[in-house]
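re the bet — no i am not wrong, look at it urself. input seq straight from the record:
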Amino acid sequence: MTTPETADHPDMLAGEYVLGTLDHAERTQASLRRVSDPVFDGAVTAWEHRLAPLDEATPEVEPPTELWSSILARIMGLSAAGVGAAGNVVQLSRQLQRWKQVAAASMALAAALALWVAVSPFMATRGVNEPLVAVLQKTNDAPAFVMRADLRDNALSINPVAATPIQGKSYELWIIDADLGAPKSLGILGEDHVSQTKLPNVPRAVLERATYAVTVEPPGGSVNGVPSGAPVFFGHLLRTGP
């Protein structure tokens, strides 16, 4: 155990560390200090060299033959006298093996239950209620917006990623599909905040196969309800699950 004097003298603390007289908390702190304090680590190494001859001079001691039986007896809650015979040791070993098997099975069951608890909320939203995601970009290495569609209520949220604001212009989102006729506007997109809008009330199949495109428009959006030019970003909705 350390004292104020020991704490102020790294060499004394190193000696106690090597001798094994520190308590658990003090030894943990000393081990951490070895990593961050080269002087203290050197002192520990020096003490290990000094005391190494004593360790080599200490004769090996064979543990008593009944030690293992005593350990098993304590584990199983039996008296040491009742497990001295080899037959009892074998019996206890078999019981320990069964305990290990039961413990392993219990752990597997607990893991399976935990997995079910974690996955079941997502299982409930698979299929019809599964969210869809689209990356709106011009090239594969330059995503401009990420779009998430919740088809349960036709909600659409668009997060800006790398879209660069254009002075005096607005980004406008469109849905394009042959069944819809002309492109339909889904609203103006913010370059520095999440935009919220609604998908049109059309069949799900149309929403899933449609192209979602972004054009550059005058401030506030297209003045005539149709895109002013070719899309600068585009993408398609994809399922988020397997």
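see?? Strands lie at 132-137, 143-150, 155-160, 170-176, 184-189, 195-198, 211-217, 233-235, 238-239. told u. also The two ends are 59 Å apart (CA to CA). so pay up
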